[in-house]
Fold this protein.
Amino acid sequence: MLDPKTGLPPRFLRTPDAARFLGISIRTLEKHRTYGTGPTYRKIGGRIVYTLDDLQGWTENGVRRWRVRKTLGSELFCVIPFLRR
């Protein structure tokens, strides 16, 4: 995703590019924004934009990890619950 004019990655992504980057539909990203569960966004000149750092941070927030918890000598595998912002 390099800018053809500068050869640098874009500083901000608009909603269609941000959705493509995340691998979700534009509408899903819009719903997350409406419900307050999506990545941090900015309005610049009336346009919604996202930074790559904010998008990557939002995806990291949704990571689920397995953890081993020992209880009475046996091992139980538990999923750490997903916490919404």
